[in-house]
Amino acid sequence: MQISVIVALTLLVLTAFGFLIGRRRALAARGASGGRLHSLPNYYGYYIALWTGGPALIVLALYGAMGAGLVNTLAMTQLEREAAPLIAEFERQLDNDAAYRALLAQAADAELDAMEAREAIALARDAGLDPQDFQSELARQTTRLTETGAQLDARRGEIVRDVAARAPSTDAGIRARAGFEYWISPNERRELFLADARAIAFGAGLASRNTPELRAAALAMRPVEDVFRYSAAGLALALAVGGLAWARSRVRGAFRARNRVEAVISGLLMLASVIAILTTLGIVFSLLFESLRFFAAIDWRLHEFLLGLQWSPQIAIRADQIGQSGAFGAVPLFAGTALITLIAMLVAVPVGLFSAIYMSEYATPRVRAVAKPVLEVLAGVPTVVYGFFALLTVGPFLRDAALFLGYEDAVTQSALSAGLVMGVMIIPFISSLSDDVINAVPQTLRDGAYAMGATKSEAIRHVVLPAALPGVVGAILLGMSRAIGETMIVVMAAGQGANLTANPLESVTTITVQIVTLLTGDQEFDSSKTLAAFALGLVLFTLTLMLNIIALRVVQRFRERYE
Amino acid sequence: MNRPASIRSAVEARLARRHRSEQRFRFFGVAAISLAVAFLALLVGSIIIQSIPALTTWRVTLDVELERSLIDPRGDMSEASLRRGGYSAAIQTALRRQFPDMETREELRDLFGLYSAVNAARLLNQVVENPSLVGQTVSFTFPIDDAANLYLQGATVRESTAPGPAPLLVTPGEDETVTLAADIAVFDAFMDEARAVARARVRELEQRASRAEAALSEAIDRDIRAVYESEARRARTAAGQLLERLDEGAALVLDAQTPSLLIKAGGAVIRVTEISADRAQAAGEIVISGDAPGGLMADWTLWTLETPQAGRRVSDRQIILTDALRERGLAQSGFNTELFTYADSREPEIAGVLGALIGSVLTMFVTMLLAVPIGVGAAIYLEEFAPKNRITDFIEVNINNLAAVPSIVFGLLGLAVFINTFGMPRSAPIVGGVVLALMTLPTVIISSRAALKAVPPSIREAALGVGASKTQAVFHHVLPLAAPGILTGSIIGLAQALGETAPLLMIGMVAFIADAPTLGLSGFTEPSTVMPVQIFLWSSAAERAFEARTAAAILVLLILMMSLNAVAIYLRRRFERRW
Amino acid sequence: MAHDTHPAPSTVYHPAPPGMDTKIAARDLTVRYGGALALDRVHIDMPGRAVTACIGPSGCGKSTFLRCINRMNDTIDTARVTGSIRIDGEEVNDRSIDPVLLRARVGMVFQKPNPFPKSIYENVAYGPRIHGLAAGKDELDAIVETSLTKAGLWKEVADRLHQPGTSLSGGQQQRLVIARAIAVNPEVILMDEPCSALDPIATARIEELIDELRENYALIIVTHSMAQAARVSQMTAFFHLGALVEYGPTEEIFTNPRDQRTQDYITGRFG
Ligand SMILES: Nc1ncnc2c1ncn2[C@@H]1O[C@H](COP(=O)(O)OP(=O)(O)O)[C@@H](O)[C@H]1O
Ligand SMILES: [Mg+2]
After folding, report:
1. C75 CB less than 6 Å from ligand 1?
2. Is the CB of C78 inside a 6 Å radius of any atom of ligand 1?
C-alpha cells in the first residue's frame, strides 16, 4: 500500500519535474543561441514529461492489471503441488464411493425429468392448455434435484473432510491442506478464498474467515507479492529516470519537440480507430473458436447442423447424448427466421418506401413536420417495447381474429404477430434510407420527365425510382439484415417451439431466440448447448455481414454515380 | 409531318386514366404515412392505457402496537435483539384487531394474504433507526396485496350491488351459519345469472377437455400423456358436476365455479352458500358479524361477484375484508411511489424500477466513458489524420459494417471475451457498459465524422495558414466547431444503448435482483439489471399486476430516452451552423 | 399587386418582319419566387417556325420566362405566375389547361443533358409511350428512328439502341434529349442554354440541328453566346433584371440596338 503511494507520488513529481526541465532547457537554448526554437517551449516540457511518465505508467498499469493474478497463480500452484498426495487420495475415494455414485445417477434422472416437464409446459402453452400440472411436476423435480444436489455436496464434503484430516497439522501439512481446499473449490469459492487470503496477507479489505489454511495461503503469497511489487516499483522508477535523462539529452533549440508530442497524440488517435477493428476481430475469433468446439462436439457432422430438420437441444443434456444425431438440426430456426423476416419485409418495404416517396415528393412542409418526427420516434422505440406490444396487444388481437375467422389452432405467440411488429420497427429504417437515396436523385431528371409531360407519379415510377433503385435495394438489404438479427421482438412474441412450418399463424422460433434460450439459464460454459449458441451466432453474423457488405457496396456505387 | 390535332386527341384520350392512377399513387403515399402514424399512436396509446392501473396503488394504514416483548425478544434493546423482533406478527395482530371474526386457519390465511411479509422489513428499519418506538403504537402504511389492489381498482372482478327488494328474515343457526328467507323470490336475478355463467363455463370446460384429448393423441412421451389424460379427466368431471347443478327445479349450491352472492346488512356481511329452488330462501355463513345480524331486515343489499372464485386470485372473503378496509377508511388509493422507491420484487405491489434505474445509470456511465472518447478519437484520426490508403479504407468499411452487426452478437462477444476469458463478473454494469460501448462505438464514430466533415476546409486552411500544426488546427479550431454535432451524435448513440436489451441477456443481466446496486464505485461490479431488461423480465412474469407495471416501466424508459433525444435536438438546433 | 407600385418597364419593339404569324404571346407576364420579382410584366409576340433567342445577363429571368411557356414553374412551390401567356391564342395559365397536355405540345431541353436511366431506345420512346401515341411496336420503332434521325443521332446509335442513355458522350446525350423531345411531335421546343455544357464541335452539331428543326417547330432558345444567337435565331429578346428590354429581328438587335443596355450587353460591356 505505502510503497505504491510513494511510487505514484515520485512519478508525479518526476513528471512535473521533467516538464519544467524541458521548458527551462528550451528557454535556455533560445537565450544561448539567441536563435529560434523549433516549437513552443511548452512542447519541450510535454515531450520530457511524456517520456518520464509514459513508460513507467504502462509498467504500473500492467502490474495493476495482472500483478495480483500472477501472484495468486504462482502461490497457489506451489500449494497445489504440495497438495498432490491429498488430491490423489480424494479422487480415489470419490471413485470408490458407492453412495456418491448412486446420488449422481439420481441427480441425472431428476434433471432429465425436469427437462421433460419444461418441454411439456412449453407444449401445453402452445396448445393453449393449462400447464399447471406440468408446473407442479417441474417444481417437484426441481426440489428433488436441489435435494439430491445438497446430498451430493454433503457426501462430497464428508470425503473432503476425511481426506483433509489425513494431513498432519504441521506447517507443511497445513500448506497441503490449503492447496487441497483451493483445488477442490468451485470457481466462485476460489475467488472468495483468494480474496480472503489476500485480505489476511496484505490487509486489503476484510477477510470473511480466518482459518489456518487461509493463513498458510497468505503466508505463501507474501514473498511472491513482495518480489513483484518491488521489481515493478523499481522498474517504473528506473524507466522514469531513464526516460527523463534520455529525453533531456535530446532537447536542443532545433529539436522538433512538437512533432514528437503530436506523433504521440496521433498514435493514440490511431489506437482508438484500431479498436473498431479489434472488436470485429474479437467477434470473428470468439464466434469461430467456440463454434469449432461445438462442431468438434457433434463430431464434425456439420451437414446435420446446417441441414438437419430436428432442433431439440434439450435432448442433448447428458454427455452421452451430445453426439446423438438429430438434436442440433438448425433448419427449423432458419425457416422461422426466414418466415418472420419475410413478413416483416412485406410490411416494412411498401410502407417504408411509400412513406419515403410521399415525404420527399409530395408532402407539404407541414405534413413533413409531423411525419418526420413520428418516424424518428418509431425508430427510437426500444425493441423490448415492440416486443411487449406484440405480446400483449398484437398477438392476442391476431389470435382472436383468427379464432373469429374459424381458425381453431390460433396462438398468441405467432410468426405473424412477431413479423408484423418487426415490420413496423423496420419501417423508419427503410423510409429514412430510401428518403436519402430519393433526395440524391438529381432534380434535372425529374425536370426532364415533367417536361415530357409525365405526371408526378409517372416521373417517380419511371425515372426517379429506377435511378434510385440501387440505393433502395441497399436499404432493403440493410433492413433485412436488421430483421434477421432482431432479438427481443421474436423472443417475446414468436414463441420457442422449433416448428418447421410456413403457416404464419403458428409459433416459430428463430436463430436469435435460440441463442437467447440456450444462453440464459445457469449453465457451465462448456456444455454443448452454450457452444451451439455460438455456432448459431456465427451463422447469424455471417449472414448479416454478407447482406451488409452487399448493401453498403450497392449504396456506395449509387452515391458515386450521382456525385 | 406536323399533326398537332391527332396528338392532342391521343393525349387527351388517356389523360383521365393517367390522373386517376396519379391519385391512386398519391393515396398509397398518404396511406403509408397514416399507417406509420397510426402504428405509433396505437403503440404509445396501448402502453399508456395498460400502464394506468400501475400509476396508482391502494395502501392500508394500520395502528401497529410494537409490544416490547415481541419487538425486543432479548429485552436489552440492542440492535441485534431489535432485528429479531416479530414485526410481521405485530402487523398481523393489528390486522386481526380489525377483524375479530377471523378465527380459523383458513380465515386467517385469507386475512394475512392481504399483505406480504416483505413489508415488515420496513417496519424493522423504522424501529432500528428509532428504538424509542418500542412499546408504542405506530401508524404503519403498506401497499395492499396485488390481487386485492387489482380488485379495488376494479380490474379483475366484475361486481354489482342492488338494494334488497323485500324484507329478509335472518335466522342465525349454529357455528356462524344463517338461514335467509323472504316472501318473494329475491334471489331470482342472481339464480338466472349464475346458471348462465355455469352454462358458459361448462362449454369452456368441454372445449378444454377435447383440446387436451386432441393433444393427447399427438403426445409421444409417457409422462406428458399422463398429464394430458388427467387434464382431460379433470375438465370432464368439473363440467359434469356443473351440469348437474343446472337443473332448474333443484337448489343451487354456490362454489368456486359459480358467481358469488353476498348479503350486506347493517355492518354484517353474509356469504350465501345455497339458494333454494323457490328462489326465496337461502343458507349462508357470516363473514363479518358486525352488530350480530338477526331478525327481519328491511334495509339490506344484494352484492353479486359475477366473476367466479376460480377465475380470480382474491377469494370472496378477501374481497369482503378489502371492501371493509376501504369502507373504514383504512385503505386509500394514491400515486404509486413504490414504483420508484423499490427495486425488483416477486411481490408486484412492492416491485419498482429503482434498481433497474440505478443499473442503467451505472451502465450508461461506463458506456459513455468508453464510447465517446474512443469514438471521437477514432473519428478525428480517420477524418483528419489518416492517410488515404488500403488500411484506412478497410477500417472505414469495417466500421460501417460493425454498425449493422446485430446487437446480440456483441453480447456473444462480451460473454466469450469479457466473462469467460477475462473473468469479469456476470450481470455487472461494468461488463454491460463495455459491451454497449463497443456496440455504440460505430454510431459515435460515424456521426462524429459527419460533424467533422461539415466543418469547411477553409477553417483548417486558415489555421494552417497562420502556422498552426495539423494537430493544433484540429484541436483548437475544427473540434470546437464540430463539438455540437459530435455531442448530438454521442447522445443519440447513448439513447440507443439505453434501450438495448439483447446483448445484456447474454452477459447474465437477466437475473432476478432484489437489491438496488450501490450508486457508487462498488456498484459497477455488483449484480444488477437495467431498465429494458427489467421490462423484459416483468413482461414474462405470471402475476397480472406485473402487466401494468411493465407498461409503466416502459413509460419511464420512453420518457428517459425522449428527454435524451430532446437534449440532442436542442443542441442541434441551438448550435447548428451552416456554411 | 406590388408591381403596380412602380411603372411598367418599357420595352423597345422593332417592327415585326412582314408576314410573321404569332405563335406565342405574353401579356403582363410576371413571376415571383416567394417575394422576389423574377419577371416583370413581359409583353412579347413570338413567331412559329422560327428560332427566337433569349439573351441577357445571368439571373435576368430568361429561364423563368422559358419555364412559363410549358408551366414548369408549377413544380416550384414558391413560384407565382400572373399575367397571360397564350399559345395559338389559347391561355396557358388557365386552370382548365392540363400541364400534362401542354407539355406534350411544348418540349423542353435543359442545360445539362439529362437522359433517363433507361436505354437509348426507351429514352426516345418515353414520350410516345406515356402519351399513347404509338399503336404498336412497329409504329414506336418508326417514331424512335425518325426522331433519332431528325436529331442527327441515328447513324451513331442505330446498332446500340439498347445500351443505357448515360453511356453516350455529352454532345450525343444532348442530341438524345432533343430526339426525346421531338418524338412526341411538339409544336414548340424550348431550349435552356442547350450548348453551355458542350465542347465546340458538339455545339456546332446542335446549332445545325436547331437550324433544321426550325422548319417544323417554333424554337425558343436561351443562350449566353452572342455569336450563337446571331447564328441560329431569327428573332432576339434581350432581358435585363426581369424586364424585357428590347425585342425584334436578330439582325436589327445586333446591328442597331436602340436601348443603351442592349448595346452595352452585346458589345460585352457587362454580363
Ligand atoms: N427556384 C427558385 N427559387 C427562388 N428564386 C429563383 C428560383 N429560380 C430562379 N430564381 C431567381 O429568379 C431570378 C431569375 O432566375 P433565372 O430565370 O434562372 O435567370 P437566368 O436563367 O436568366 O439566369 C434570379 O434572381 C434567381 O435567383
Ligand atoms: Mg438560366
Report:
1. no
2. yes
Ligand nearest to the CA of C196: 2
Residues in A closer than 8 angstroms to C110, CB to CB, are 444, 447-448, 451
Torsions phi, psi for B115 (to 5 deg): -140, 155
**Domain range summary for chain A, segments of one domain joined by +:** 3-78+230-279, 80-222, 307-562
Which homologous superfamily does the CATH classification assign to the domain defined by A307-562? MetI-like (1.10.3720.10)
Q: Which residue of B has its CA nearest to A522?
A: B508
* Mutate which: B25, B231, B441, vs A, most A CBs within 10 A: B25
3-state class percentages of chain C: helix first, strand second, coil last, to nearest 5: 40, 25, 35
Nearest to B162 by CA among B190, B182, B181: B190
Ligand nearest to the CA of C65: 1
- Whether C195 is in a domain gets the answer yes
Whether C207 contacts C154, CB under 8 Å: no
Number of folded domains that form chain B: 3
What whole-number distance in Å separates Cα of residue C46 and Cα of residue C13? 12
CB contact under 8 A, A458 and C118: no
**Got the DSSP string for A247-269?**
HHHH--TT--HHHHHHHHHHHHH
Q: Name which of A368, A452, A460 to mutate to probe chain C: the one with the most chain C Cβ atoms within 10 A of its Cβ.
A: A452
- C-alpha of B106 from chain center: 31
In a domain, B492, yes or no: yes
How many structural domains comprise chain C? 1
Please list the pLDDT of chain B residue by residue as tens digits (579 residues). Answer: 344 567 788 888 899 999 999 999 999 999 999 999 999 999 999 999 999 988 999 999 999 988 888 888 888 888 888 888 888 888 988 998 888 888 888 888 889 888 887 888 888 888 888 888 888 899 999 999 888 998 998 888 888 888 888 888 888 887 788 888 888 888 888 888 888 888 888 888 888 888 778 777 766 666 667 777 887 888 888 888 777 777 777 788 888 878 899 988 877 888 998 888 888 888 888 888 877 667 788 888 889 998 888 888 888 999 999 999 998 889 999 998 888 988 888 888 889 999 999 999 999 999 999 999 999 999 999 988 888 888 888 888 899 999 989 999 999 999 999 888 877 778 889 999 999 999 999 999 999 999 999 888 888 888 888 877 788 888 888 888 888 889 988 999 999 999 999 999 998 888 788 778 888 777 887 888 999 999 999 998 878 889 999 999 999 999 999 998 888 888 878 876 655
d(Cα A232, Cα A230) in Å, to the nearest integer? Answer: 5
pTM of the model: 0.83
